[in-house]
Amino acid sequence: MPTTTTEEPPEAPVAKDPLAPNPHRVSGGMLDPKQLVTSFPDALRKLDPRVMIRNPVMFVVEVGAVLTTLSAIKSPSVFAWVITVWLWLTTVFANLSEAVAEGRGKAQAETLRRTKTDTVARRLADGWRPGAEGLVEEEIPATQLRLGDCVVVEAGQIIPGDGDVVEGVASVDESAITGESAPVIRESGGDRSAVTGGTKVLSDRIVVKITSKPGETFIDRMIALVEGAARQKTPNEIALNILLASLTIVFLVAVVTLQPFAIFAGAEQTIVILVALVVALIPTTIGALLSAIGIAGMDRLVQRNVLAMSGRAVEAAGDVNTLLLDKTGTITLGNRQASEFLPVRGVDIEQLADAAQLSSLADETPEGRSIVVLAKERYALRGRSEGELAHAEFVPFTAQTRMSGVDLNGEERRALRKGAATAVMRWVRDHGGHPTDEVGPIVDGISGSGGTPLVVGEVSWQNGTAEARILGVIHLKDVVKHGMRERFDELRRMGIKTVMITGDNPLTARAIAEEAGVDDFLAEATPEDKMALIKREQAGGKLVAMTGDGTNDAPALAQADVGVAMNTGTSAAKEAGNMVDLDSNPTKLIEIVEIGKQLLITRGALTTFSIANDVAKYFAIIPAMFASVYPGLQHLNIMGLHSPTSAISSAIIFNALIIVALIPLALRGVRYRPSSASSLLSRNIWIYGLGGLILPFIGIKVIDLLIQFIPGLR
Amino acid sequence: MPSSLNRVIRHHLAALRMLLVFTVITGIAYPLVVVGIAQAAFPHQANGSLIKDRGRPVASSLIGQNFNLPLNKGQTSPQPDRKWFQPRPSAAGTTGYDPTSSGASNLGPNNPDLVAVIKARRAAVAAFDGVPPSSVPVDAVTASGSGLDPDISPAYAYEQVNRVAKAWGLNRPAVRKLVADHIQGRNLGFLGQDRVNVVELNHDLAASK
Amino acid sequence: MNNTLAGWLQVIALVGALALSYRPLGDYLAHILTSPRHWRVERLVYRAGGVDGDADQPWPAYLRSVLAFFLVSLLFLYGFLRLQNHLLLSLGMKAVKPDLAFNTAASFVTNTNWQNYSGESTMGHLVQMAGLAVQNFVSAAVGIGVVAALIRGFTRKKTDRVGNFWVDLTRVVLRVLLPVSFVFALVLVAGGVIENFHGIQSITTIAGEHQSLTGGPVASQEAIKELGTNGGGFYNANSSHPFENPNPFTNWLEIYLLLVIGFALPRTFGKMVGDNRQGYAIVAVMALIWASSVAIVTANELHSVSSSAGHLAGGMMEGKEQRFGIWASALFAVSTTLTSCGAVNSFHDSYTPGGGGMTIFNMMLGEIAPGGTGSGLYGILILAVVAVFVAGLMVGRTPEYLGKKLRGQEMKYASLYILTTPAIVLVGAGLAMALPGERAAMLNHGPHGFSEVLYAFTSAANNNGSAFAGLSANTVWYNTALGLAMILGRFLPMVFVLALAGSLASQQPVPVTAGTLPTHRPQFVGLLTGVILIVVGLTYFPALALGPLAEGLH
C-alpha cells in the first residue's frame, strides 16, 4: 500500500488545535492583584463565625485571634498586639483567597446575567402540533414559561428558555454562553436541536419546546456554578478536611497539655504564646487555601468553556481509567480526505486527477475540497473556478444518485461522475460502458485498509457515440489528528486506557485505531454497545469518561462517571452528562482529565507543604518558649533568631504571609505534566515537601531580621 | 429489650467459656507440661542452677550475693568483708541482693543523688582495694538492673586480688589464676561481654582453702 | 574481639535470624489466617466455647466479640487477683488491692503488661500462670486477629465480612503461639531459666547470710512474654533478672522472640494481598526505623560523658547487667520499645538523656517498627493509609491503597486512629503534671522527673509496658489513670481499625494502572518513613523538648 498521504493537510486546524503537542500544560487564569483589593470586603464579611466554622482549621485560628485580642487588651504589650494583628490577618487572608476565587466567578456571572434581561416569550397559546398552521400567540415574560410550552422565535429575537427546536431551522448566535461569535445552525429533529435560553436567533424562524423550569435554565445553573453558590464539598475535599481536622485536634491537645508541663518546668506560658504555637502548628496554609483550590478548579474548567455540574465530576475526571473517544472529530479530523488517486490500466494518473478535480470543483464538502487540493498539490493542477469552465453544469450529490460530478457541454462533450463504487459503475453501464475487473479489487483494497473509495467515471461523446469508462478510484482516508499518538502515549503513562468509538466496520476501525495509537476500539458501535462497554469497565472498578451529543447517547452519558455533553447536542444529552462543553470539542475530554488531576495535586502538594512548614516553626518557637528555664534548648534556635518575642512573631507573620503568597498557586493550580505516578510524586515531594521544609527557615529568618528593630520585640 | 439483652449475655457467656478453655490449655496444661519436661531433662537449670555445699544449697550461681561482715551493734549499713571478692552495688532490697525485691536504682543519669553515690562508691572502693580512684572500673560503682547481678568485670576482679590474697594469706598469682579461670567469655564468641561470676569465684575460693 | 565488633555481630546475627524466619513464619501465619479447614482440636475448642467456627462476621460482630472477650478477661483476671489468697499455689501472697488489681488486669488484657507490682512479692504461681500468662497468649492473638481482619478488608470485595474472631484467636494460639512458646521455653530452660513450682527457698549464703531464692514456672511464661510482645516479667526486674534471662545467649534469644512475629507479619500481609512486594516495603520501613534507633541508642549509651553520672562512673552501666553490657542492653531496649513488648533487660530510667529519650520516642511512633503482634502491623498500615492519602493526592487521583479508595469514611477512621493515642498520652501526662500530689511520685527531679511521667503515659497508651521505673506509680490515681490509658489505647484504635476493615471490604477494588501510586518501591518506603517521623515528631516535640531534650542539651 503506497503511503501517499498528505503529511499535513492544509485544512487541518493544527494551529488552533488545543491539543498542540508537547510542551503543553494546563494553565489557569492569572491572578490580577486588583482582585485582592476588590475581594477584601468579602473577606471581612466571611469572618462571621457561623461561616468560619465550616472550615475547622481557620475557625481555630479565629477563636485564637479572639483570645489573644482579649489578652492583649487586658495586658497590652507590643508583642501581644503584633501577634493579635497577625492572627486576624491570617484569618482574613484565608477568607481573601476564597473571596478572590469566588470573585472571578462573580465577574463571569455578571456577564451571564446581562443575557437574562427581561426577555419576552411568544408562547403558542394552545400548544404546537406538527404541521399546525395559524396558531395563536401570546406574549408573556420569559420567567413565566413552563415546562412543555412552545414558543416562536424569529430572527433578531432572544430565545426565552432552554428547549428543543421542534420546527424550522435557524442560525443562532450562542456567543453569550460560549464566547464563540460564529453562529451555529439549530434545526428540528436530530442531534442539533437543543437551544439555550439567552442566545439569539440570527435568521429564520423556529418553534422551541421549553425543556427547563424557570430558574433552572442552563444559564441559571451556569451562574450558580460560576458564583460558587451551588458549591458543595467534594468527596475528596471532605476526606482531606477530616485529616486536617484531626491534625488540628492533635496539635490543640499537644499545646493545651503543654501548659502543665511548662508550669512544672517553671516557664508558664501566656495565652498569646500558646495560641501562637497552636496557629503555627495547625495546617493553616492548606486550611486557608482549600476552598479556593476547589473553586479555582471549577473556574479553570469554565475558562475552557466547560461547565461541570458538580465538583464531584471534576474530581472523578482525575480518577478516570478509561476514556471513550468518538473517532470523528476527536481522533480524526472531522472528515475524510483524499490521499491518493488510483487509475485503472490505460488511464494516466494525471488524467484521473484532472477528472477528479473537475468533478469536485463544485463540491463544497470537505471531502470534495480535499480532492481539489490533492490534485493541485500532487499534480500541479490548479483549481479552476467555475466560471472558467464555460458550459459546465455541475451535478450535486443526492442521496438517490450517491454521486456528484459535472457535465461539460463545450467543444467536447463529456460527463464526469465520482461517488460510491456501485453507483458510478451502474452509471457507466447505463451509458453502455463496461467497468474493468480491476476496479473491484482496488475498491476492496481501500475499504480493507479503513479508507473510503470514490470511483471516478467518465462518459464522453464523440461523433454522437457515447463512450463510458471508469477512470480510477480516489482513496479517501480518515486523517488522524496531528499529535494524537503522542497524546495517547501520554495518557497511557498516566494509566488511562483509550477506547475509540466508531460506527465504522471493524476492519476500518482497526486500521485507524492502529494509526492513532489508541488502546482499543469499539466498531459499529450502537448506543447499546457503548453502554455495555461502560458497564463492563465499571464492573472492573474502572472510572469511565466519555463525550456524547445525541439523545441516544444520554443513557451512556448518565452511566459514565464523567459524561461530557456537547453543547451542540440535545437537551437530553446535556441533562444526562455531568459536564457540558460549550465549544463542543470532544478532544477537550483529555484536558478535563488533566484539570481534575491538577486539582487533586494542588491539594496534596499544599497539604504536604503546610505540614512540612511546622518543623521550622518548632525550631523558632520552642526555644523561644523554654530557653529561659532550660538554656540548653537555645541549641534548637538554629536560625539564630533575635529574641523570643521576635522569633514567635516571625513564625506567625510567615504563617500569614505564606497564605497570600500561595493564593496565585492555589488559583492557578500546581504545574502538571502528564507522567507516571512515581515521577509525579517524586517531583512534588521534592518541591513541596522539601521546599516546605526549607523555605520557612529562610522566610522566618528574613522576617526576624526585619522585625527585630521593632522596639517591643527586642 | 430482653431479647437483645439476652443476646449480649449469651455473647459474653461464650466469651467466658472461650477464656476458660484457653485458661485450661495455656494456663494449666502448658506450664505443667513444660515443668514436667524441664524437671526431667534439665533439672539443674530448672531448679535455679544451685551450688551445693555438702548437699545444702548455698547459692544459685545466677543470683548475686552480699559478701559483708556481720552487722555490729549500732551499725546501720554493713561493711564489705575484705576476704571476699565484692559484687557490684545492688539496689535490690534495703541491704542489696535480696531476690524477693529485685530491681534497679532508677536514678536518672544526671540525678545529683546518683552522682553523689558514684563519687562515694569510687572513693570507698579505691580505699578498700588500695588502688587509685581513677582505676576503679565502672561496674564497681554502678548498680545493676536486677540488683542480683552475679557478675563483675574481669578488671574489677583483678583489682580485688591483692586485698583478697592478703586477707586469706594466699599468694597473689594463685588468686590471679583463680580469677583468670573464672573469666567467662562471650557466648558463642560475640554475645554479651566478658565477666567473672563472683558467687562461683568466692565459692571456689573458699573451697580452695 | 573488641566490644564494637561483637556488638555489630550480635545485631547482624539477629537481623539474619529474623530474615530467615520472615518467609516461613509469615507464610505460615497467612496460611492459618486464610485456611478454611479447622483442626479437630479447634473444633473441640469451638464446641467447648459455644461459638460457631464457620460463621464469617461483619466488622461490628467481630468487634463485639473482641470487646466481649476483653470485658470477660478483665473481670476474670481482676477477680483472680482479688481472690488469689484463697487459691492454690498462692505462696501466702495476699489479695491484690482493688486499684492495683484493676491496673494489672487492664495491663495484661491489653497486651501492655505494665507492672505496678513486684512479681516476686505480690503474685502466687497460679495467678502468674493461669491468670497473667493466659492473657499473654490471648491478648497477642487478639492483635493478630484484628490485623487479619484489616488485611481481609483489603483483599475482599463487596462484602461486609471480615473473618471470624474466635477462629483467628484459636488458630493463632494453638497453631503458632503455643507450639513456638513450648519449644523456646525448653530452650530457655536449657540456657538456665528456671521452671519449677518451688516457693521461696531460704539458703545460707557463702558469706553466711540468709537469702531467699524465689522459684516458679518462669521459662514457660518467659517464652510467651517475649513471643507475644507482652513483656510482663515474672519478677520485678523483668528480663534483667538472672532467673528470667541468665546469659547473653538467652538474652539474644529473647530479643529474637519479641521481634520475630512483628517482623514476619508484613510477609503475611504481602502474602494475603497477593503481592509480596507490599510486605517487603512495609518490613523495610520497620527495619529502617529499628536499625536507626539501635544505632542512636547504642551511640548515646556508649557516649557516657553526655551525662554527669556516666561521666563520673566512666560508663553507662547503672541499671545494666554485667553479662549483657551496653550493646546487648541497648539492642534490647530499642527492640522492646519499638514493639509493644515492654520487657526490659536494663533500666531505661538510668539511660542517657539521648538513649532514654529515644526509647520514649520509639513508643511515641505508635509501636510500629515492628510493633506488637498484630497491633504493630495495623498501626503501620494506618500510617500507610495516611501517607498514601497525601501522596495519592499528589499524583492526581483519589488516593487508593491496594486497590481500595481512601475516601472520607476511610480517612475518618484513620484520622481517629492517629488522633487517639497522642491524645491519651498528652492528656494523661498533662493531668498528672497538673496534680501536685501525682507529681510527687517522681523519683528524679527536673526534666528527668517529667520524662518519667511522660514515659508512663506513653508506655500505657501505646501498650508497651516498660517504664522509667523511678516513678512510684502504685497509687490509686496512677493505677486508675494508667489502667484507663491502657484500655483506651488498646481498644479505641481497634474499633477504628475494624471499622476501616469493614469499610474497605465493602469496596469494589480499583484496578492498578500506571497512574496508581506504587506502594512497593523504595520511594514509598522513604515516604512512609518520612510521614511517620514527621507526624509523630510534630505531635510530641514540645513534650520531648521539656523532657529528654531539656535534659540532654547543655
* Helix content, binned percent of chain A: 40-55%
* Unreliable spans of chain A: 1-29
Structural class of chain A: alpha+beta
Enumerate the spans of chain C where pLDDT stays under 50 for 5 or more consecutive residues.
none
Overall tally of structural domains of chain C: 2
H and E order of chain C = HHEHHHHEHEEHHHHHHHEEHHHHH
- Biggest β-sheet strands, sense, barrel of chain C: 2 strands, antiparallel
Number of separate strands of chain A:
22
| Distance between the amino and carboxyl termini of chain C | 35 Å
Strand content of chain A is: 15-25%
**What spatial form of chain C do the alpha-carbon principal axes imply?**
globular
Shape field of chain A: elongated
**What is the radius of gyration of chain C?**
22 Å
Put simply, the count of helices of chain A is 25
Strand content of chain C: under 5%
- Percent helix range of chain C: 55-70%
Mean pLDDT score of chain C: 95
Major sheet of chain A: size, sense and barrel closure? 7 strands, mixed
Count of alpha/pi helices of chain C: 19
Structural class of chain C: mainly alpha
Question: What do these coordinates show?
Answer:
The complex is a heterotrimer of chains A (about 725), B (about 210) and C (about 550). With about 725 residues, chain A is an alpha+beta fold. Chain A is built from 25 helices and 22 strands. Chain A is about 50% helix and about 20% strand. In chain A, helix 11 (about 285-305) packs parallel to helix 24 (about 645-670), helix 12 packs across helix 23 and helix 23 packs antiparallel against helix 24. Chain A starts with about 30 loop residues before the first helix and ends in a 7-residue tail after the last helix. Chain B has a 3-stranded antiparallel sheet with strand order 3-5-4. Chain B has a two-stranded antiparallel ribbon with strand order 1-2. In chain B, a hairpin with a 2-residue loop joins strand 1 (about 50-55) and strand 2 (about 55-60). The longest helix of chain B is centred in the N-terminal third of the chain and has 40 residues, at about 1-40. Chain C is mostly helical and about 550 residues long. Chain C folds into 2 domains: about 1-110 and about 120-275, no CATH class; about 375-555, no CATH class. Helices cover about 65% and strands about 5% of the residues of chain C. A two-stranded antiparallel sheet of chain C has the order 1-2. Chain C starts with a helix and ends with a helix. Classes of the chains: A alpha+beta (about 725), B mainly alpha (about 210), C mainly alpha (about 550). The interface between B and C is large, with 98 and 125 residues.
